[in-house]
Amino acid sequence: xxxxxxxxxxxxxxxxxxxxxxxxxxxxxxxxFHGVADIVGDSLALAREAQHVTAGTIVLAGVHFMAETAxxxxxxxxxxxxxxxxxxxxxxxxxxxxxxxxxxxxxxxPVVTYVNTSAAVKAASDICCTSGNAVEIxxxxxxxxxxxxxxxxxxxxxxxxxxxxxxxxxxACEVHERFTPADIDDIRSGNPGVTVIAHPECPPNVVxxxxxSGSTAQMIDFVGQVSRAGVPDAGGRRKVAxxxxxxxxxxxxxxxxxVDFVRPCNLCPHMKRNTLTAIRRSLELGQHEIxxxxxxxxxxxxxxxxxLAVK
Length: 311
Ligand code: 13P
Ligand code: SF4
Fold this sequence. Notes:
Keywords: 4Fe-4S, Iron, Iron-sulfur, Metal-binding, Pyridine nucleotide biosynthesis, Transferase. This protein has 311 residues and is an alpha/beta fold.
């Protein structure tokens, strides 16, 4: 940790100098998550918190769609993304033209759009959702069919929990699509009694083989439940496997020394661009400032605000 300290101190000083706060996603490395973040959370929490920021600058230690969402919800603030290459395979998988084509094929069916998308795609949608509220958002529409884009796996996982039919788009998260049921079998056979917790961007057969599925914040909460009430093994330890991005286990392990973490993980290269050095430079140079296309701003904000009004 000592190796990070000079950079952490420099960032803290820059935050004061520039009236900035750092909102960090749960996939940040521990030195960002525990070292410099002011607010941490899943996509839903970061969106909600962005609305209430009073500081002049938000540094979004996450990926581009998260910074864009923060700007949409608090447009008077300067929003900085440390590295503009922090994209997302889901956001890149779909365009507004794809939505227009889906609407032509399925007239009258509402479009529910995962927040992991560009402002242009949100603007072409009826309502947004995150992995933390997708069930409630879909049920709030009171329909029996929705177009749910762009993550085909999230859509199918949520459909299985709602009884609402989903029309999907072939997008996938490059991190979560790599997990397989064989991975879960290996974890269970090597770790009797382990609790397997999977993100709903994993393929449905991976989620079906797990004990719980939810957003990154819901996964963290579930670790807390296992820590409090899970059945310990013969050695008095509780074991958890988080089927998601690597840094989650590192961050949660620091808060639950009583739990052993089995670590089958895949790295998100986009999230990992938020190094301490990138964050420091972002504050020093005021880069990279997120701007919005004024023609997309109002419709994109409406889709997010409709979501936040439900949950
Ligand atoms: P959460 O909203 O669950 O934090 O997920 C965001 C994400 O990018 C997962 O890959
Ligand atoms: Fe996108 Fe997947 Fe990375 Fe999340 S983990 S930002 S969904 S590529």
